[in-house]
């Protein structure tokens, strides 16, 4: 007797729509849907994405999409979750490799700008432009993600200030006496978000990393 395979129903429908499409393993279809959604968001001209357009791009019916995601909002939630896992995985790597707190914050900022440059569609999610007209919980979810980023930056800069105070003569980055990690972290995140918005508004023509090195020195020191 043939073993029962999950998503056979999806494969049958999708094969009838796109008979030469590669058969995906269980779970891979969800990833493919999110990848396609992110790719559609990369169009320089911002247009509201419908499930019908998304299904057509993939080559399946809308019903097939809803077997994997209950709603379009859930698709965006999946994309936000992917972004969050990716960013904090990279943040944790930076913190593990770089002992200096100020340099940690600088590396995190550069990573966030480079992530945006490489993932313009996801930048539209991070700026919430792609979420206009969608469920308000999605914007709240992005705000929570950004609050986590700011908390990480505060922690890095507090460490940097402690290092500067304890080892002033050996510290590679001298900091002023009135250095405020909380204010600097808030300013740094505002700078990053501003760069994301400019990147989106320019139709992805103005790189978020442009002149970032010099500007980050002004913010962090």
From TrEMBL:
Residues 50-69 bind DNA. Residues 128-155 form a coiled coil. One of its GO terms (molecular function) is DNA-binding transcription factor activity. Residues 27-87 form the HTH tetR-type domain. Keywords: Coiled coil, DNA-binding. Signal peptide: none annotated. The keyword DNA-binding applies. SUPFAM superfamilies: Homeodomain-like, Tetracyclin repressor-like, C-terminal domain. Residues 1-22 are annotated as: Disordered. PANTHER family: HTH-TYPE TRANSCRIPTIONAL REGULATOR RUTR, NUCLEOID OCCLUSION FACTOR SLMA. This is Nucleoid occlusion protein. The lineage of its organism: Bacteria, Pseudomonadati, Pseudomonadota, Betaproteobacteria, Burkholderiales. The gene is slmA.
């Amino acid at each position: 007797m043939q073993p029962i395979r999950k998503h056979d129903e999806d494969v049958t429908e999708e094969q009838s729509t796109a008979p030469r499409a590669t058969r995906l393993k269980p779970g891979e279809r969800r990833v493919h849907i999110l990848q396609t959604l992110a790719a559609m968001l990369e169009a320089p001209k911002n247009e509201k994405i419908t499930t019908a357009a998304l299904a057509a791009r993939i080559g399946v019916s809308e019903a097939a999409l809803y077997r994997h995601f209950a709603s379009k909002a859930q698709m965006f939630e999946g994309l936000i979750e992917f972004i969050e896992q990716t960013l904090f995985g990279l943040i944790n790597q930076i913190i593990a490799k770089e002992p200096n707190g100020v340099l940690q914050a600088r590396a995190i900022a550069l990573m966030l700008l480079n992530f945006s440059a490489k993932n313009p569609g996801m930048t539209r999610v991070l700026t919430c432009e792609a979420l206009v007209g969608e469920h308000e919980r999605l914007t709240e979810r992005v705000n929570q993600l950004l609050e986590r980023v700011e908390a990480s930056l505060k922690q890095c800069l507090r460490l940097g200030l402690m290092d500067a105070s304890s080892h002033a003569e050996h510290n590679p980055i001298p900091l002023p006496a009135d250095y405020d990690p909380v204010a600097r972290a808030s300013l740094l995140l505002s700078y990053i978000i501003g760069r994301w918005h400019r990147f989106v508004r320019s139709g992805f023509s103005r790189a978020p990393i442009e002149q970032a090195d010099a500007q980050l020195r002004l913010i962090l020191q």
